[in-house]
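Z., the sequence and structure:
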Amino acid sequence: MEIKGQVSMVLCGPAGMGIQTVESLLTKIFRQNGYHVFATPEYMSRVRGGMNSTEIRVSDHPVQAFVRRIDVLIPLAKGAIDHVAWRMSDKTVILGDRDMLGQEIDSDEYSCRHVPFSQIAGDIGNKVFSNIVAVGALAALFGIRADLLADFVGRFFQRKSKDIIEKNINAARAGHEYGDRFVSEGDLKITIQSSDSPIRQAFLSGTEAVGLGALAAGCTFVSSYPMSPSTGVLTYLAKQSNDFGLVVEQAEDEIAAVNMALGAWYAGARAMATTSGGGFALMCEGISLAGIIESPLVVHLAQRPGPATGLPTRTEQGDLELALYAGHGEFPRILLAPGTLQEAFTRTAQAFDLADKHQVPVCILTDQYLLESYYNTEPFDVHSVKAKKHFIETETDYLRFKITDSGISPRGIPGYGKGLVCVDSDEHDESGRITEDHNIRIAQNEKRLRKRNGIGKDTIAPTLWPEDEYKNLVVCWGSTFPIVTEALTRLNRDDTSLLHYSQVYPLHSDTAAYLEKAEKKIVLEGNATGQFARLLKMYTGIEADHRILNYDGFPFSVEKVVEQLTPIL
């Protein structure tokens, strides 16, 4: 049996078995050998027990999306096959240990190749090495030489003791012997055209892209209370703090985190609070505070399924309306929703400039799928990011909330100049002092709302792909972009285009024109009620003809998008 062109491999086992270590090792090996790689994990919300899996797609061309199918499955414990059975077919090949899995692997439904992972690992010294045996077997199926594999495994574990390094190398070699046997006997082989040299593109996760965007924008303060899946951004930036002069504060709760970020902006820093849905709910009063004191604020909201704790380690696009309406009262805001690693970098960097320029809260909407997926991407253009600060040196007659035609008052920093920078959470006059004068209330409220005119001019245009001429228009936002792109590529229709929004509020002024041009308007999003479709109708009066929704905690698969679009188109 030969698998050509590209392959979707899934490793599955209980938490604590090193599935993520295997993912990291394999993706590095494949990239070093000239393959394009995409990887995305799924895991249960348990420290021990339950089943975790990771999908690794290897291809001769760039791949950036989750697929449902499994070409090769490596189950590393009992229950693994049942856990991913919904993704398997009669074409799925199982590399597994019959002695461990028993009747689970003896099913007539699947093509099985016996590899005694546990026995090999036990002979080496510990069954914990089973996952490295699997690495060796997979490397052999790709024709990667045993000596190159051993060298790479040695370097990967170089910080371990000499004994551990040697045992990992032996485990990889032993697995390679089994995989090589399948290849030599013509039983199983993976043939994918690789480049002559290692892939030189960056290989990053969404978490790292968001963090790098913040650093490029001059972020100097990060506050957070850890909450999956946003915690990765906090820990990534903490690792960079010494090199970039970054203050990282793990707060006692999300209320403290958002207020710390506001205090940092008030003092002249560029600050971000990072959280997930439940934590963002606690930040709502702080976001409203940003509205009335007209403070810049950047909040990274990593979405996961709710309500309440919901599915804490899964993915969803269910917090759009939460971000849209968070905070009591009326005040301008901006919502960004990157769909790729490049956009995760650029939109995060832009968030700081937009917040600083317009003195409003800006929310970056990501999700578990985007944050924890890895793939090749071109290096980020850090030189295009201009971290321009928008505060002034104050004079003695400085008025923090001076009435202006644009709605933007000159922003001062305490200690930078001669003026008093007075802010207050109550309604206030131009100097910042509390008032209940209804005429001043009207003037200040209308001043704040006038910022919407300037924000509208800075709104980021949606991406139309591939054609300007179309009969059918698929509209999506956030992390679904690469998935829908691959699905439309498979459908290969010249009458259908994709319109992707990486800024979901305010909507770009051309939105209605894009929608009116289409005979069929299909909105695709990862929630149960069509939140973005509702937003489109609210601001354009145009209703989607069809909605494709997904809310099972998993990302859209390319196959599901194709299956849902086919009867509509």
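Residues 407 and 447 are 4 Å apart (CA to CA). The chain has four domains: 2-191, 203-384, 391-457, 463-568.

Let me know what you think.
H.
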